[in-house]
């Protein structure tokens, strides 16, 4: 059965009402680790958005025009991860060449975009939800932007919290997890706008 939701509606829903990080909690490891500074968070959010959008597009084409016609859809996970890994290598070389400061700020988390489950999740959701090519592009872009918005918001909040008197047991990851939960609840306020399944 074909999903008839427009690509724009899917994009808006993927950013706000069905944020891949705040509703599905995909991509939490790099979210927590790289949300200490706004500049680093913005750089990683941009890289994730770029990789997620392009790999969702490529994976759609590969899945529908190569894997399914040849009866190789059992290789979906392996092929999707290979496409993601290739794009992350490209992004890593690009960032290292044109922004060494950002490259060193992101450190090990830039190559770890390869195993960011949010990126693989976006490609798998596009198949599960039976999206068309344009819907897949909208979802990939929206999911990437949603992830970027969440990490930049978190970085801003963590920078503000550095001036706060956070009790000792809550410093670091515990307060970051609490704030992530509050952010997720705040994004639930968008739930009445639009939803995708």
Which secondary structure elements does this structure contain, and how are they paired or packed?
Layout: H1 7-15, H2 28-33, H3 38-67, H4 76-98, H5 100-106, H6 117-128, H7 133-161, H8 173-187
Report on this model:
With 197 residues, the protein is mostly helical. The chain has one domain. It is built from eight helices and no strands.
* Number of spatially distinct domains: 1
SS summary, helix count: 8
What string gives the helices and strands in order?
HHHHHHHH
Distance between the termini: 13 Å
Shape: globular
Roughly how much helix do the residues carry, as a percent range?
Answer: 55-70%
Strand tally: 0
Low-confidence stretches: none
Strand share of the residues?
Answer: under 5%
Q: What does the main sheet amount to? A: none
Mean pLDDT: 88
């Amino acid at each position: 059965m074909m999903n008839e939701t427009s690509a724009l509606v899917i994009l808006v829903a993927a950013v706000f009402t069905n944020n891949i990080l705040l509703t599905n909690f995909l991509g939490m490891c790099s979210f927590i680790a790289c949300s200490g500074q706004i500049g680093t968070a913005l750089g990683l959010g941009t890289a994730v958005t770029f990789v997620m959008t392009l790999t969702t597009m490529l994976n759609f084409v590969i899945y529908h025009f190569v894997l399914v016609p040849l009866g190789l859809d059992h290789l979906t996970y392996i092929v999707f991860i290979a496409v993601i890994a290739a794009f992350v290598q490209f992004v890593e070389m690009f960032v290292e060449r044109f922004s060494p400061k950002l490259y060193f700020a992101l450190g090990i988390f830039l190559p770890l975009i390869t195993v960011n489950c949010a990126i693989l999740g976006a490609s798998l959701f596009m198949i599960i939800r039976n999206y068309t090519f344009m819907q897949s592009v909208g979802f990939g872009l929206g999911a990437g932007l949603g992830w970027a918005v969440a990490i930049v918001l978190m970085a801003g909040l963590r920078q503000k919290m550095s001036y706060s008197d956070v009790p000792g047991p809550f410093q670091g990851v515990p307060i970051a997890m609490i704030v992530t939960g509050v952010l997720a609840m705040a994004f639930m306020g968008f739930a009445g706008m639009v939803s995708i399944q």
